[in-house]
Amino acid sequence: MRLPLSERARTLQRIFGAIVALSGLVALPSALLAWWWGEPTVLAFAESFLLPFVAGLLLWYPVRQARYELRLRDGFLVVSAAWIIACLVTALPFVLGPPNLSFTDAVFESTSGLTTTGATVIVGLEYLPRSVLFYRASLHYLGGMGIVILAVAILPMLRIGGMQLFRAESTGPQKDSKLTPRIADTAKALWLVYSVLVLICALAYWVGGMGLFDAITHAMSTVSTGGFANYDASFGHWDSPLIESIAIVFMLLGGLNFGLHWYAWRRATLGHYRADAEARLFLGIIAVATVVVTVSIWQGGRFEAPLEALRHSVFQVVSNLTTSGFVTTGFVDWPGLAPLLLVMLAFVGGCAGSTSGGMKVARVQMVVRQGFRELKQLVHPKGQFLVKVGGKRVSESVVIAVAGFCALYLLSFVAMTLVLVADGVDIVTAFSAVAASINNLGPGLGAVAAHFRDLSDFSTWVCSFAMVLGRLEVFTLLVLLTPQFWRD
Protein backbone atom coordinates (compact mmCIF):
# COMPACT_ATOMS: atom_id res chain seq x y z
CA MET A 1 0.00 0.00 0.00
CA ARG A 2 1.40 3.41 -0.99
CA LEU A 3 1.74 5.83 1.87
CA PRO A 4 0.22 9.30 1.34
CA LEU A 5 2.66 12.08 0.66
CA SER A 6 3.36 14.52 3.46
CA GLU A 7 2.15 18.09 3.02
CA ARG A 8 5.77 19.18 2.56
CA ALA A 9 6.32 16.64 -0.21
CA ARG A 10 3.03 17.66 -1.88
CA THR A 11 4.08 21.30 -1.78
CA LEU A 12 7.47 20.49 -3.31
CA GLN A 13 5.72 18.44 -6.02
CA ARG A 14 3.48 21.42 -6.75
CA ILE A 15 6.48 23.71 -7.07
CA PHE A 16 8.49 21.31 -9.23
CA GLY A 17 5.49 20.64 -11.49
CA ALA A 18 5.09 24.37 -12.03
CA ILE A 19 8.81 24.71 -12.81
CA VAL A 20 8.64 21.92 -15.43
CA ALA A 21 5.59 23.51 -17.07
CA LEU A 22 7.07 27.01 -17.03
CA SER A 23 10.38 25.71 -18.45
CA GLY A 24 8.42 24.29 -21.38
CA LEU A 25 6.95 27.72 -22.04
CA VAL A 26 10.43 29.01 -22.94
CA ALA A 27 10.17 27.22 -26.31
CA LEU A 28 6.81 28.79 -27.22
CA PRO A 29 8.07 32.16 -28.61
CA SER A 30 10.57 30.34 -30.84
CA ALA A 31 7.83 27.97 -32.02
CA LEU A 32 5.68 30.94 -33.03
CA LEU A 33 8.60 32.63 -34.79
CA ALA A 34 9.48 29.41 -36.62
CA TRP A 35 5.86 29.17 -37.80
CA TRP A 36 5.87 32.84 -38.86
CA TRP A 37 9.13 32.48 -40.77
CA GLY A 38 8.14 29.13 -42.24
CA GLU A 39 11.11 27.29 -40.74
CA PRO A 40 11.14 23.49 -40.34
CA THR A 41 11.98 23.86 -36.64
CA VAL A 42 8.37 24.66 -35.75
CA LEU A 43 7.56 21.03 -34.89
CA ALA A 44 10.64 20.62 -32.68
CA PHE A 45 9.82 23.76 -30.70
CA ALA A 46 6.12 22.83 -30.49
CA GLU A 47 7.02 19.42 -29.04
CA SER A 48 9.54 21.01 -26.69
CA PHE A 49 6.75 23.24 -25.41
CA LEU A 50 3.93 20.70 -25.19
CA LEU A 51 5.75 17.71 -23.65
CA PRO A 52 7.11 19.43 -20.52
CA PHE A 53 4.07 21.69 -20.23
CA VAL A 54 1.70 18.73 -20.07
CA ALA A 55 4.06 16.74 -17.82
CA GLY A 56 4.36 19.71 -15.48
CA LEU A 57 0.59 20.14 -15.31
CA LEU A 58 0.16 16.45 -14.51
CA LEU A 59 2.58 16.86 -11.60
CA TRP A 60 1.04 20.12 -10.42
CA TYR A 61 -2.70 19.51 -10.75
CA PRO A 62 -3.21 16.71 -8.16
CA VAL A 63 -1.43 18.75 -5.46
CA ARG A 64 -2.42 22.25 -6.55
CA GLN A 65 -4.09 22.93 -3.18
CA ALA A 66 -1.07 21.85 -1.14
CA ARG A 67 0.16 24.50 1.26
CA TYR A 68 3.18 24.19 3.50
CA GLU A 69 5.45 26.87 4.90
CA LEU A 70 8.81 25.84 3.52
CA ARG A 71 11.80 25.91 5.84
CA LEU A 72 15.15 27.53 5.16
CA ARG A 73 16.51 24.11 4.25
CA ASP A 74 13.82 23.73 1.60
CA GLY A 75 15.00 26.95 -0.02
CA PHE A 76 18.29 25.35 -1.05
CA LEU A 77 16.45 22.39 -2.56
CA VAL A 78 13.92 24.51 -4.45
CA VAL A 79 16.51 26.93 -5.87
CA SER A 80 18.91 24.17 -6.96
CA ALA A 81 16.15 21.95 -8.37
CA ALA A 82 14.61 24.87 -10.26
CA TRP A 83 17.84 25.55 -12.15
CA ILE A 84 18.61 21.88 -12.79
CA ILE A 85 15.07 21.14 -14.03
CA ALA A 86 15.09 24.22 -16.24
CA CYS A 87 18.45 23.24 -17.78
CA LEU A 88 17.21 19.71 -18.56
CA VAL A 89 13.85 20.80 -19.99
CA THR A 90 15.19 23.64 -22.13
CA ALA A 91 17.67 21.21 -23.76
CA LEU A 92 14.86 19.51 -25.73
CA PRO A 93 14.83 21.85 -28.78
CA PHE A 94 18.53 21.22 -29.38
CA VAL A 95 17.84 17.47 -29.51
CA LEU A 96 14.56 17.45 -31.47
CA GLY A 97 15.61 19.99 -34.12
CA PRO A 98 18.68 21.64 -35.62
CA PRO A 99 21.48 21.35 -34.63
CA ASN A 100 20.26 17.86 -33.46
CA LEU A 101 22.72 17.55 -30.61
CA SER A 102 23.14 14.55 -28.35
CA PHE A 103 21.36 14.88 -25.01
CA THR A 104 24.68 15.53 -23.27
CA ASP A 105 25.63 18.36 -25.62
CA ALA A 106 22.07 19.73 -25.59
CA VAL A 107 22.08 19.97 -21.79
CA PHE A 108 25.48 21.68 -21.95
CA GLU A 109 24.12 24.22 -24.46
CA SER A 110 20.95 24.95 -22.48
CA THR A 111 22.88 25.15 -19.20
CA SER A 112 25.34 27.53 -20.82
CA GLY A 113 22.41 29.65 -21.95
CA LEU A 114 20.50 29.81 -18.67
CA THR A 115 23.61 30.36 -16.55
CA THR A 116 24.75 33.03 -19.07
CA THR A 117 28.05 31.23 -19.57
CA GLY A 118 28.06 31.47 -23.35
CA ALA A 119 30.17 28.37 -24.00
CA THR A 120 28.93 26.34 -26.95
CA VAL A 121 29.30 22.96 -28.61
CA ILE A 122 27.88 24.25 -31.91
CA VAL A 123 30.04 25.09 -34.92
CA GLY A 124 28.52 26.97 -37.85
CA LEU A 125 26.16 29.22 -35.91
CA GLU A 126 25.43 31.41 -38.92
CA TYR A 127 23.86 28.43 -40.70
CA LEU A 128 21.32 27.68 -37.96
CA PRO A 129 17.66 28.69 -38.41
CA ARG A 130 16.84 32.08 -36.93
CA SER A 131 14.36 30.52 -34.51
CA VAL A 132 17.19 28.47 -32.95
CA LEU A 133 19.41 31.54 -32.66
CA PHE A 134 16.55 33.44 -31.04
CA TYR A 135 15.98 30.55 -28.63
CA ARG A 136 19.64 30.59 -27.54
CA ALA A 137 19.46 34.35 -26.92
CA SER A 138 16.16 34.00 -25.03
CA LEU A 139 17.84 31.53 -22.65
CA HIS A 140 20.36 34.26 -21.83
CA TYR A 141 17.59 36.83 -21.39
CA LEU A 142 15.62 34.69 -18.95
CA GLY A 143 18.69 33.33 -17.18
CA GLY A 144 20.22 36.77 -16.73
CA MET A 145 17.20 38.14 -14.92
CA GLY A 146 16.83 34.95 -12.93
CA ILE A 147 20.41 35.42 -11.75
CA VAL A 148 19.81 39.01 -10.59
CA ILE A 149 16.65 38.06 -8.68
CA LEU A 150 18.51 35.09 -7.20
CA ALA A 151 21.41 37.28 -6.06
CA VAL A 152 19.39 40.22 -4.78
CA ALA A 153 16.18 38.69 -3.43
CA ILE A 154 16.79 35.02 -2.62
CA LEU A 155 20.39 34.24 -1.65
CA PRO A 156 20.55 36.93 1.06
CA MET A 157 17.61 35.21 2.77
CA LEU A 158 19.44 31.88 2.65
CA ARG A 159 22.42 33.64 4.29
CA ILE A 160 25.08 31.95 2.19
CA GLY A 161 28.36 33.01 0.68
CA GLY A 162 28.38 36.41 2.33
CA MET A 163 25.53 37.74 0.21
CA GLN A 164 24.41 39.50 3.39
CA LEU A 165 27.24 41.81 2.38
CA PHE A 166 24.54 43.90 0.70
CA ARG A 167 23.48 45.12 4.13
CA ALA A 168 27.05 45.77 5.23
CA GLU A 169 28.52 47.79 2.38
CA SER A 170 25.78 49.25 0.24
CA THR A 171 25.38 52.96 -0.08
CA GLY A 172 21.61 53.00 -0.17
CA PRO A 173 19.60 50.83 -2.56
CA GLN A 174 20.67 47.51 -1.03
CA LYS A 175 20.74 48.61 2.60
CA ASP A 176 18.08 46.14 3.69
CA SER A 177 18.89 43.43 1.15
CA LYS A 178 15.72 44.26 -0.76
CA LEU A 179 15.02 47.14 -3.12
CA THR A 180 11.37 47.19 -2.14
CA PRO A 181 9.65 45.77 0.94
CA ARG A 182 8.47 42.59 -0.78
CA ILE A 183 10.42 40.13 -2.91
CA ALA A 184 7.68 40.17 -5.57
CA ASP A 185 7.97 43.93 -5.87
CA THR A 186 11.75 43.63 -6.00
CA ALA A 187 11.49 41.13 -8.86
CA LYS A 188 9.14 43.41 -10.81
CA ALA A 189 11.44 46.41 -10.34
CA LEU A 190 14.46 44.43 -11.51
CA TRP A 191 12.60 42.99 -14.51
CA LEU A 192 11.63 46.50 -15.57
CA VAL A 193 15.15 47.90 -15.34
CA TYR A 194 16.65 44.82 -17.01
CA SER A 195 14.16 44.80 -19.91
CA VAL A 196 14.56 48.53 -20.54
CA LEU A 197 18.35 48.09 -20.73
CA VAL A 198 17.90 45.25 -23.25
CA LEU A 199 15.58 47.42 -25.34
CA ILE A 200 17.98 50.38 -25.33
CA CYS A 201 20.89 48.08 -26.19
CA ALA A 202 18.97 46.60 -29.13
CA LEU A 203 18.16 50.05 -30.49
CA ALA A 204 21.79 51.11 -30.12
CA TYR A 205 23.03 48.01 -31.98
CA TRP A 206 20.48 48.61 -34.74
CA VAL A 207 21.50 52.25 -35.15
CA GLY A 208 25.15 51.17 -34.99
CA GLY A 209 24.82 48.94 -38.06
CA MET A 210 23.45 45.55 -36.98
CA GLY A 211 20.40 44.08 -38.63
CA LEU A 212 17.26 44.17 -36.49
CA PHE A 213 17.32 40.45 -35.68
CA ASP A 214 21.01 40.47 -34.74
CA ALA A 215 20.48 43.62 -32.69
CA ILE A 216 17.69 42.03 -30.62
CA THR A 217 19.43 38.72 -29.99
CA HIS A 218 22.82 40.27 -29.22
CA ALA A 219 21.18 42.79 -26.87
CA MET A 220 19.75 39.89 -24.86
CA SER A 221 23.21 38.27 -24.78
CA THR A 222 25.01 41.50 -23.87
CA VAL A 223 22.95 42.84 -20.96
CA SER A 224 22.77 39.34 -19.50
CA THR A 225 26.59 39.16 -19.90
CA GLY A 226 25.98 35.83 -21.60
CA GLY A 227 28.10 35.64 -24.73
CA PHE A 228 26.00 33.68 -27.22
CA ALA A 229 26.44 35.18 -30.69
CA ASN A 230 24.85 34.43 -34.06
CA TYR A 231 28.23 33.95 -35.74
CA ASP A 232 31.25 31.80 -34.98
CA ALA A 233 33.42 34.93 -35.17
CA SER A 234 31.30 36.63 -32.47
CA PHE A 235 31.78 40.43 -32.69
CA GLY A 236 34.64 39.91 -35.13
CA HIS A 237 31.90 39.33 -37.73
CA TRP A 238 31.25 43.08 -37.90
CA ASP A 239 34.78 44.38 -37.19
CA SER A 240 33.16 47.66 -36.14
CA PRO A 241 34.62 49.92 -33.42
CA LEU A 242 31.17 51.52 -32.99
CA ILE A 243 29.37 48.23 -32.37
CA GLU A 244 32.15 47.11 -30.04
CA SER A 245 31.86 50.37 -28.09
CA ILE A 246 28.13 49.85 -27.66
CA ALA A 247 28.81 46.31 -26.44
CA ILE A 248 31.37 47.59 -23.92
CA VAL A 249 28.88 50.07 -22.44
CA PHE A 250 26.13 47.49 -21.97
CA MET A 251 28.49 44.76 -20.75
CA LEU A 252 29.60 47.24 -18.10
CA LEU A 253 25.99 47.96 -17.17
CA GLY A 254 25.32 44.22 -16.95
CA GLY A 255 28.38 43.79 -14.74
CA LEU A 256 27.31 46.46 -12.23
CA ASN A 257 24.94 45.89 -9.32
CA PHE A 258 21.40 46.10 -10.69
CA GLY A 259 20.34 47.68 -7.42
CA LEU A 260 22.35 50.72 -8.49
CA HIS A 261 20.51 50.83 -11.83
CA TRP A 262 17.16 50.63 -10.05
CA TYR A 263 18.17 53.41 -7.71
CA ALA A 264 19.29 55.57 -10.66
CA TRP A 265 15.94 54.91 -12.36
CA ARG A 266 13.92 55.64 -9.23
CA ARG A 267 15.78 58.73 -8.02
CA ALA A 268 17.06 60.10 -11.37
CA THR A 269 20.60 60.35 -10.04
CA LEU A 270 24.03 58.92 -10.90
CA GLY A 271 25.97 60.04 -7.83
CA HIS A 272 25.54 56.71 -6.05
CA TYR A 273 27.62 54.95 -8.72
CA ARG A 274 30.65 56.99 -7.65
CA ALA A 275 29.85 56.40 -3.99
CA ASP A 276 29.72 52.61 -4.37
CA ALA A 277 33.07 51.10 -3.34
CA GLU A 278 32.56 47.92 -5.34
CA ALA A 279 31.70 49.81 -8.54
CA ARG A 280 34.81 51.98 -8.19
CA LEU A 281 37.05 48.96 -7.72
CA PHE A 282 35.34 47.19 -10.63
CA LEU A 283 36.14 50.07 -12.98
CA GLY A 284 39.65 50.34 -11.52
CA ILE A 285 40.38 46.70 -12.30
CA ILE A 286 39.22 47.26 -15.88
CA ALA A 287 41.52 50.28 -16.26
CA VAL A 288 44.61 48.52 -14.90
CA ALA A 289 43.99 45.26 -16.78
CA THR A 290 43.41 47.16 -20.03
CA VAL A 291 46.76 48.93 -19.74
CA VAL A 292 48.59 45.66 -18.99
CA VAL A 293 46.95 43.73 -21.85
CA THR A 294 47.40 46.61 -24.31
CA VAL A 295 51.14 46.87 -23.59
CA SER A 296 51.53 43.08 -23.75
CA ILE A 297 49.89 42.57 -27.14
CA TRP A 298 51.36 45.72 -28.68
CA GLN A 299 54.92 44.94 -27.64
CA GLY A 300 54.35 41.31 -28.65
CA GLY A 301 53.55 42.46 -32.19
CA ARG A 302 49.95 41.21 -32.29
CA PHE A 303 48.74 44.66 -33.39
CA GLU A 304 50.95 47.22 -35.07
CA ALA A 305 49.09 50.37 -34.00
CA PRO A 306 48.77 51.18 -30.27
CA LEU A 307 45.17 52.37 -30.75
CA GLU A 308 44.27 49.09 -32.45
CA ALA A 309 45.78 47.19 -29.52
CA LEU A 310 43.84 49.40 -27.08
CA ARG A 311 40.58 48.86 -28.98
CA HIS A 312 40.74 45.09 -28.76
CA SER A 313 42.20 45.08 -25.23
CA VAL A 314 39.46 47.16 -23.64
CA PHE A 315 36.76 45.07 -25.34
CA GLN A 316 38.28 41.78 -24.23
CA VAL A 317 39.03 42.93 -20.68
CA VAL A 318 35.45 44.15 -20.19
CA SER A 319 34.09 41.02 -21.84
CA ASN A 320 36.11 38.68 -19.61
CA LEU A 321 35.80 40.57 -16.33
CA THR A 322 32.02 40.76 -16.75
CA THR A 323 32.16 37.08 -17.86
CA SER A 324 30.33 37.95 -21.08
CA GLY A 325 32.78 35.97 -23.19
CA PHE A 326 32.36 37.85 -26.47
CA VAL A 327 35.47 38.09 -28.65
CA THR A 328 36.66 40.18 -31.57
CA THR A 329 39.86 38.56 -32.83
CA GLY A 330 39.99 35.86 -30.18
CA PHE A 331 42.60 36.11 -27.41
CA VAL A 332 44.02 32.58 -27.32
CA ASP A 333 46.93 33.48 -29.63
CA TRP A 334 47.71 36.85 -28.04
CA PRO A 335 51.35 37.11 -26.91
CA GLY A 336 52.72 37.29 -23.38
CA LEU A 337 50.57 37.10 -20.28
CA ALA A 338 47.40 38.39 -21.98
CA PRO A 339 45.54 35.05 -22.50
CA LEU A 340 46.12 33.79 -18.95
CA LEU A 341 45.35 37.18 -17.40
CA LEU A 342 42.07 37.42 -19.33
CA VAL A 343 40.98 33.97 -18.12
CA MET A 344 41.99 34.82 -14.53
CA LEU A 345 39.93 38.04 -14.62
CA ALA A 346 36.81 35.88 -14.78
CA PHE A 347 37.56 34.56 -11.28
CA VAL A 348 36.98 38.11 -10.01
CA GLY A 349 33.89 38.63 -12.15
CA GLY A 350 31.48 41.53 -11.93
CA CYS A 351 29.73 43.18 -9.01
CA ALA A 352 27.44 41.45 -6.55
CA GLY A 353 23.82 41.70 -7.73
CA SER A 354 24.85 41.72 -11.41
CA THR A 355 24.36 39.18 -14.19
CA SER A 356 28.11 38.44 -14.20
CA GLY A 357 29.71 35.27 -12.90
CA GLY A 358 32.92 34.81 -10.93
CA MET A 359 33.44 35.26 -7.20
CA LYS A 360 32.35 38.93 -7.45
CA VAL A 361 34.43 42.04 -6.87
CA ALA A 362 33.04 42.66 -3.37
CA ARG A 363 34.11 39.23 -2.12
CA VAL A 364 37.59 39.48 -3.62
CA GLN A 365 37.95 42.97 -2.19
CA MET A 366 36.96 41.73 1.26
CA VAL A 367 39.26 38.68 1.20
CA VAL A 368 42.23 40.85 0.15
CA ARG A 369 41.52 43.34 2.94
CA GLN A 370 41.23 40.49 5.40
CA GLY A 371 44.65 39.29 4.23
CA PHE A 372 46.18 42.72 4.81
CA ARG A 373 44.52 42.85 8.21
CA GLU A 374 46.28 39.61 9.15
CA LEU A 375 49.62 41.08 8.04
CA LYS A 376 49.05 44.12 10.24
CA GLN A 377 48.06 41.85 13.11
CA LEU A 378 51.39 40.00 12.81
CA VAL A 379 53.29 43.27 13.13
CA HIS A 380 51.07 44.63 15.92
CA PRO A 381 49.69 41.59 17.79
CA LYS A 382 47.79 43.72 20.31
CA GLY A 383 46.30 46.04 17.71
CA GLN A 384 42.62 46.07 16.75
CA PHE A 385 42.12 46.21 13.00
CA LEU A 386 38.78 46.19 11.17
CA VAL A 387 37.78 45.06 7.70
CA LYS A 388 35.95 47.93 6.04
CA VAL A 389 34.18 48.19 2.71
CA GLY A 390 32.89 51.54 1.55
CA GLY A 391 34.02 53.08 4.82
CA LYS A 392 31.79 50.77 6.85
CA ARG A 393 32.88 47.98 9.18
CA VAL A 394 32.07 44.47 7.99
CA SER A 395 31.01 42.02 10.68
CA GLU A 396 33.20 39.02 11.44
CA SER A 397 30.39 36.63 10.46
CA VAL A 398 30.29 38.07 6.95
CA VAL A 399 34.08 37.98 6.63
CA ILE A 400 34.09 34.31 7.68
CA ALA A 401 31.23 33.49 5.26
CA VAL A 402 33.07 35.17 2.37
CA ALA A 403 36.33 33.41 3.21
CA GLY A 404 34.49 30.08 3.34
CA PHE A 405 32.84 30.79 0.02
CA CYS A 406 36.13 31.64 -1.70
CA ALA A 407 37.80 28.55 -0.23
CA LEU A 408 35.06 26.18 -1.43
CA TYR A 409 34.90 27.96 -4.80
CA LEU A 410 38.60 27.46 -5.46
CA LEU A 411 38.62 23.92 -4.06
CA SER A 412 35.75 23.02 -6.40
CA PHE A 413 37.68 24.52 -9.30
CA VAL A 414 40.81 22.53 -8.48
CA ALA A 415 38.86 19.28 -7.96
CA MET A 416 37.01 19.53 -11.29
CA THR A 417 40.21 20.48 -13.12
CA LEU A 418 41.86 17.32 -11.79
CA VAL A 419 38.82 15.28 -12.84
CA LEU A 420 39.11 16.58 -16.43
CA VAL A 421 42.85 15.84 -16.49
CA ALA A 422 42.10 12.31 -15.25
CA ASP A 423 39.65 12.00 -18.16
CA GLY A 424 42.48 12.62 -20.61
CA VAL A 425 42.14 16.37 -21.16
CA ASP A 426 45.42 18.27 -21.40
CA ILE A 427 46.25 20.57 -18.47
CA VAL A 428 45.76 23.90 -20.28
CA THR A 429 42.40 22.85 -21.70
CA ALA A 430 41.24 21.36 -18.39
CA PHE A 431 42.27 24.45 -16.42
CA SER A 432 40.58 26.89 -18.78
CA ALA A 433 37.50 24.72 -19.44
CA VAL A 434 36.66 24.53 -15.74
CA ALA A 435 37.60 28.19 -15.23
CA ALA A 436 35.36 29.22 -18.12
CA SER A 437 32.52 27.05 -16.77
CA ILE A 438 32.53 27.75 -13.03
CA ASN A 439 33.07 31.49 -13.68
CA ASN A 440 30.37 31.47 -16.39
CA LEU A 441 32.86 33.00 -18.82
CA GLY A 442 32.47 30.93 -22.01
CA PRO A 443 35.67 30.79 -24.09
CA GLY A 444 38.81 29.22 -22.68
CA LEU A 445 42.26 28.24 -23.90
CA GLY A 446 43.56 25.20 -25.68
CA ALA A 447 40.89 22.92 -27.19
CA VAL A 448 38.04 25.00 -25.73
CA ALA A 449 39.13 28.36 -27.14
CA ALA A 450 36.32 28.37 -29.72
CA HIS A 451 33.95 25.57 -28.63
CA PHE A 452 33.59 22.63 -26.22
CA ARG A 453 32.45 20.01 -28.73
CA ASP A 454 35.70 18.03 -28.60
CA LEU A 455 35.37 17.16 -24.91
CA SER A 456 34.18 13.68 -23.94
CA ASP A 457 30.64 13.23 -22.66
CA PHE A 458 31.95 12.82 -19.11
CA SER A 459 33.98 16.03 -19.24
CA THR A 460 31.02 17.83 -20.81
CA TRP A 461 28.80 16.81 -17.86
CA VAL A 462 31.48 17.99 -15.44
CA CYS A 463 31.55 21.40 -17.16
CA SER A 464 27.73 21.56 -17.11
CA PHE A 465 27.82 20.89 -13.37
CA ALA A 466 30.52 23.54 -12.96
CA MET A 467 28.34 26.13 -14.70
CA VAL A 468 25.41 25.51 -12.35
CA LEU A 469 27.72 25.31 -9.32
CA GLY A 470 29.27 28.68 -10.08
CA ARG A 471 25.96 30.30 -10.89
CA LEU A 472 24.31 29.10 -7.68
CA GLU A 473 27.14 30.49 -5.55
CA VAL A 474 28.58 27.05 -4.69
CA PHE A 475 26.98 26.67 -1.26
CA THR A 476 23.44 26.39 -2.64
CA LEU A 477 24.28 23.25 -4.59
CA LEU A 478 27.01 21.70 -2.44
CA VAL A 479 24.83 21.72 0.67
CA LEU A 480 22.56 19.18 -1.07
CA LEU A 481 25.50 16.77 -1.26
CA THR A 482 25.98 16.65 2.52
CA PRO A 483 24.34 13.80 4.50
CA GLN A 484 23.31 16.29 7.21
CA PHE A 485 21.01 18.11 4.79
CA TRP A 486 18.79 15.05 4.34
CA ARG A 487 18.50 14.27 8.03
CA ASP A 488 15.55 15.71 9.92
Report on the structure:
With 488 residues, the chain is an all-alpha fold. The protein has two domains: 1-100, no CATH class; 129-404, no CATH class. It contains 21 helices and two strands. It has helices spanning 7-25, 28-37, 42-60, 72-89, 92-96, 103-114, 130-158, 165-169, 183-208, 212-223, 241-255, 258-267, 271-275, 277-299, 306-321, 338-348, 361-379, 396-422, 427-438, 457-471, 475-478; strands spanning 388-389, 392-393. Strands 1-2 form a two-stranded antiparallel sheet. Strand 1 (388-389) and strand 2 (392-393) form a beta hairpin. Helix 9 (183-208) packs across helix 10 (212-223). The chain is globular, with a radius of gyration of 22 Å. The model is unreliable at 160-177 (pLDDT under 50).
Low-confidence stretches: 160-177
Counting structural domains, the number is 2
Which strands sit side by side, in order, in the main sheet? 1-2
Beta strand %: under 5%
How far the N terminus sits from the C terminus, by CA atoms, comes to 24 Å
Structural category = mainly alpha
* Total number of helices: 21
Largest sheet: 2 strands, antiparallel
Described by the principal axes of the CA atoms, the overall outline is globular
Radius of gyration from the alpha-carbon trace, in angstroms: 22 Å
Could you report the average pLDDT, rounded to the nearest whole number?
90
Could you state the order of secondary-structure elements as H and E? Answer: HHHHHHHHHHHHHHHHHEEHHHH
Percentage of residues in helical conformation: 55-70%
* Tally of DSSP β-strands: 2
